Amino acid sequence: MAEEDQNEVGVALHGDVLETIFSHVPLHLLLPACLVSKSWNAAVFSSLRRLDKPKPWLLIHTQSIHRPHCSAAFAYDPRSDIWLRINQKLPPEHVSALSSASSTLLYTLNPSRFSFSIDPLHLTWYHANPPSVWRVDPIVAVAGERIVVAGGAWEFEDDPLAVEIYDIKTRTWERTEFMPATLKDSAASTWLSVAANTKTIFMMEQMSGVTHSFNPDSKTWCGPFDLRPDRNIYFSVIAFHGSSLILLALLGDPGNTTDVKVWELTGESFEFSKEIGVMPEELTEKLKGEDTGFSSIRVSSIAGFFYIYNPGEPGELVVLEIGDEGRCWWGSLKNAAVSDRNRVAERVVLTCSDVGLGNIGRAVASGNEIFTVK
Q1: Which residues form the F-box domain (predicted)?
Q2: At 203, which helix (H) or strand (E)?
Q3: One pLDDT digit (tens) per residue for the chain, 374 residues
Q4: Three-class secondary structure of residue 182 per DSSP
Q5: I need a labelling partner for 229 at 20 to 30 A (CA). Which of 82, 88, 117, 221 fits?
């Protein structure tokens, strides 16, 4: 009996040691370990569950602005603090400008085709007929199994506020109620910040804070609301975090940014605000670059992770993680996908994804070498 107990303890210690080791292995390198034995497989998943959980990945897509529009994709895994290169190129038909929406959707749109990808690593693309209204800078958002495309119409179109909904399951388009007339002068992705969950899409004017919401089920609009909690805000963006809206705002003026603050908005119309964080001064200075201020920021987020950057200085990223009770953790990250030599000639698009071992397994099963440490 004593010998059996000793063996059982040995097995338990061996499992703990394996889990500790696996907690230091990058996620994309854990897949082979799962195939060694059942005990190793169990140790890998136990380690990911108990010791070092996967964190949302940042994906950065670069595309040349010149034909043939060569593209590349990079990924940052915050759990392992490493950059990876995704070696799968976009299909040849992707000659239109890459864009992203709702932090998880990657798409291209031209007069003959709407192409999009919603899987975590954007290895699978779907192709559909374009919306009936030709658009050059639309607001695009994912709400459940639907993609909403609004505004951004070509200047000669008759319906600049037109809204169309693409049903991913039925692969059909539907025209619906126009955007509110108050958004006529800002009905483009350049001017609006968008946050969406499965039920509602919020569109906020980045300069004024004026916000409208759209319900894809009832196809109705509500608003306007003013989401700005501070009159010193000159630019702001929004994103969902659970059932709350997170508002990230620049204070001061574009020539002299004094603060970057974070508010959590709650309530039926998100009328209640609570300041939960201020970007550390040294990180604000990194976003400024050589300037004293900046006119805008861009954010890609999922599951409490927010990757923030200055579109005029995309080489530096600020990382914000919002935890329980609105606690904020800040950090900075060099954008390994951007080089000074190619910055002007490349379009840079960000998405975020929850990437797990299953996603990595499917990528490897495609037959290509998907990941290379950068």
Answers
A1: 16-46
A2: strand 201-205
A3: 444 433 443 344 356 888 898 999 999 889 888 888 888 899 999 989 888 889 999 999 888 776 666 678 899 999 999 999 887 655 555 567 889 998 899 999 998 999 999 999 998 899 999 999 999 999 999 999 999 999 999 877 788 899 999 999 999 999 999 999 999 899 999 999 999 999 999 999 999 999 999 999 999 999 899 999 999 999 999 999 998 999 999 999 999 999 999 999 998 888 889 999 999 999 999 998 877 778 999 999 998 999 999 988 888 999 999 998 889 999 999 998 876 545 555 788 999 999 999 898 888 887 666 676 65
A4: helix
A5: 221
β-pair partners for 106? 100, 117
Residue with tokens 């009770």: 325
CA distance 87 to 73: 7
Angle in degrees, CA 319, 321, 324, rounded to 5: 170
Distance, in Å, from the CA atom of 187 to the CA atom of 221, rounded to the nearest integer, reads: 14
Rounded-to-integer distance, Cα 234 and Cα 253, Å: 6
The number of angstroms, rounded, from the C-alpha of 176 to the middle of its chain's C-alpha atoms is 26
Work out the number of other CB atoms within 10 angstroms of the CB of residue 199.
Answer: 12
pLDDT in tens, 111-123: 899 999 999 999 8
Q: Answer yes or no: are the C-beta atoms of 286 and 312 closer than 8 Å.
A: no
Query: What number of other Cβ atoms are within 10 A of residue 109's Cβ?
Result: 22
Contacts of residue 2, defined as CB under 8 A and 6 or more positions apart, other chains included, come to: none
Burial of 111 (0-12, 13-18, 19+ CB in 10 A): exposed
Q: Which of 308, 359, 351, 313 is nearest to 140 (CA)?
A: 351
Q: Is 247 left (phi over 0), alpha (psi -120 to 50) or beta?
A: beta
Nearest Cα to Cα of residue 160 among 131, 140, 135, 194: 135
Nearest to 201 by CA among 187, 188, 191, 211: 211
3-state secondary structure of 371: strand
